[in-house]
């Protein structure tokens, strides 16, 4: 599955679940209370439909809290990275010239740091940060390959895509297989950026850059960003450099098993909630009395 399809599959699954919950949400909190009030605590709590409604509410509220926290952390971390880059930025005429040749619309900042890293960051107006340590150690062709790679991340708005994917997976934590879709999005975008760099600079320059670029610095880890130096996909990227299509990432059995159980839980909770609301006379449905 390509990253584009994986991303929109993730969005579609989340939107379907949220639409079902939204259709039920207006009356879902009132229906269990009505049944307990009119039938007593014991019969009300023994109803499987009441438990289904409670489970759906818990999943929805917990998912909303987790997703809001994820977005908040991403926004705070992105602002912190921007401040750090601005504070440590230095002027480098050679990098500015190379960046103009790659894509004059993509802003590039050189950060005074002995580490060797490059990453794209920023949500609405993404930028590229390159360390002075990488600039000093890379050849001109390797540096150009790095800039082409990161410019592809900027054009694809990959930091924003990463934030949205993280938001959706946090929202539906009972379906861990969505995390596999998020990983597929990241992998596809990294490989696509490498292919763009190979087309413009050659496989040798990309291979040399991969050997020299390290992971993003610790102060940038919390921000949704796209970095050339990620070690997790190194094997797949080397396979692509050798001319072979890398195999798609495969979910582990635990992810599949837990997601199957989570999907069954969602289906039961949504169906039971729908029955509960349909069988309950509520003012919000125009059937109150």
TrEMBL record:
Pfam families hit by this protein: Peptidase_M56 (PF05569)
Classification via InterPro entries: Beta-lactam_resp_regulator, Peptidase_M56
Transmembrane segments: 7-33, 45-65, 256-278
Superkingdom, taxonomy of origin: Bacteria
Gene3D superfamilies, per the entry: Metalloproteases ('zincins'), catalytic domain (3.30.2010.10)
Keywords associated with the record: Membrane, Transmembrane, Transmembrane helix
Domain Peptidase M56, first and last residues per copy: 49-239
Stated name of the protein: M56 family metallopeptidase
Organism expressing this protein natively: Streptomyces lonegramiae
């Amino acid at each position: 599955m390509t990253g584009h399809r994986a991303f929109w599959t993730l969005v579609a699954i989340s939107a379907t679940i949220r639409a079902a919950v939204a259709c039920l949400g207006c009356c879902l909190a009132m229906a269990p209370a009505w049944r307990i009030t009119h039938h007593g605590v014991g019969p009300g709590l023994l109803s499987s439909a009441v438990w289904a409604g409670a489970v759906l509410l818990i999943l929805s509220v917990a998912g909303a809290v987790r997703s809001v926290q994820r977005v908040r952390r991403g926004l705070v971390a992105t602002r912190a990275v921007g401040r750090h880059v601005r504070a440590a930025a230095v002027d480098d005429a050679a990098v500015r010239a190379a960046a103009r040749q790659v894509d004059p619309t993509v802003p590039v900042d050189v950060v005074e740091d002995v580490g060797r890293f490059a990453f794209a960051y920023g949500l609405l107006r993404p930028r590229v940060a390159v360390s002075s340590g990488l600039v000093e150690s890379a050849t001109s062709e390797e540096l150009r390959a790095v800039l082409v790679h990161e410019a592809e991340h900027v054009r694809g708005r990959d930091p924003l895509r990463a934030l949205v994917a993280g938001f959706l997976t946090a929202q539906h934590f009972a379906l861990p297989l969505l995390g596999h879709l998020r990983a597929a999005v990241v992998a596809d975008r990294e490989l696509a950026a490498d292919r763009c760099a190979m087309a413009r600079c050659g496989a040798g320059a990309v291979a040399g850059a991969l050997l020299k670029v390290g992971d993003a610095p610790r102060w940038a880890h919390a921000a949704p960003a796209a970095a050339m130096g990620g070690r997790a996909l190194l094997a797949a990227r080397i396979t692509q450099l050798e001319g072979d299509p890398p195999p798609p990432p495969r979910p582990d059995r635990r992810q599949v098993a837990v997601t199957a159980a989570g999907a069954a839980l969602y289906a039961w909770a949504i169906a039971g909630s729908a029955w509960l609301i349909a069988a309950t006379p509520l003012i919000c449905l125009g059937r109150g009395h």
